[in-house]
Amino acid sequence: MSTARTVLLIGGVDAHVQRFTALGAKVVLIQHPDKVTAYQTRAADVLLVVDYTDWEVVRPFAEAARAVYGVDAVVSLTEPGLNPAARLADLFGLGDGRRHEVSRRMRDKWLMRRHLAERGLPVPHAALVTDRSSLDAFGERAGYPFIVKPLSTTAGFGVLRADGPADLDRVWARVRELDGGRTDRGSTMFTVDGFLMESYIDGPEFSVEALSFAGRHVVVAVTEKLTGEDHFAELGHAVPARLPGPDRDRLTRAVEEFLTAMDVTDGPSHTEIRLSSHGPVVIESHNRLGGDHIVELVEAAYGIDMIAYGAAWPLGLTEPLTEPPAPKAAAAMRAVVRAPGTVTAVTGVEEVLARPDVLAAQVTVRPGDTVRPLRDNWDRLGSVVVTAVDTDSAVRLCERLVHEEIRIGVEPAAAGSAPTAASGPAPAGSTSGPSPSPLRDAA
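Given the sequence above, the corresponding structure tokens read:
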């Protein structure tokens, strides 16, 4: 009789499947029809192709898989699979019965804000968008600018900034356009299910990558975000973040307090946080690994494979980290962006990828593709990931490769035209936008 542990894996990418197979686990993979790959077809012991975001569809397949193969853990390391995996784990009695409650609270930004406010943690003014007048009322109470964003999408999709009363008609029109639909690019697995308003949080933004072990949180890395001032796309990430020690300690303590307050007990997390003029304030958080090559950056800089921990810990196949790791190098990712127009040529990518200090390089547009105005992470055209001896060197190298070595010819868009299609790499989470406003308590 086999003694291999069996994981019911909900969604994910090839690297997630690979880490489980490397552990010798039996992988029962439930994958979305749009996301199946040739590697997953070969590597998974069992592959069930269904829309796992639909509970009524995924439940009977998962129950049948459990009855036939047995399940030691239900795991997802990808955003759209988090809630289904947590709900199935509770249904199967794997854990404390609260995983779905915690996962919903992490994914729904309004539930998160309310929960934190009830526990006395710092939060901005926040309220749900209910109609056009709710925007006016929020602006009068919270001040301008303020942020309007979907409750549970990713990658900066649909994030808006209201700069003043005269801006609210535009914001409301966009809310009505997006609400109730699917994200229109990159991934259609997310539904726009309502909008949240919250006052702007000033200060530089970071993300904190952590692993939790039975309620004990270990911060693996603080990631510096490279952002712009006129859009909601993330331009890149760098680790270790260039921060004085006391500021890093403030961020890590705030995230540890946040995870405890949110009842996160196990697995990886990716928390976006600003070091505001009022102290550290969490923007949003995810009970999963960071995207945008952050796991590759962390492994290059710290030697910690967070995907491997995310796979091994729920199966009881690894010991917990005892303390935060020390950096052994640095790494950076820089997004490839260009002005709107039509792509005429792409060169230099293979030469960049061949460099020994480059971990990844990709451009996802070809001649004839349209580059649209940069609004969120889906509008980016590619990325370069490098490693170097320190963060300054890694960032400089990334900047040079992206702007000088990778050459993308673009015929500018005609005046007044509005490009409508572009492709880009898998993104990370959203930012909160530019321009400062005081931090207040949530409603």
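The radius of gyration is 21 Å. Try to locate this feature in the token string yourself.
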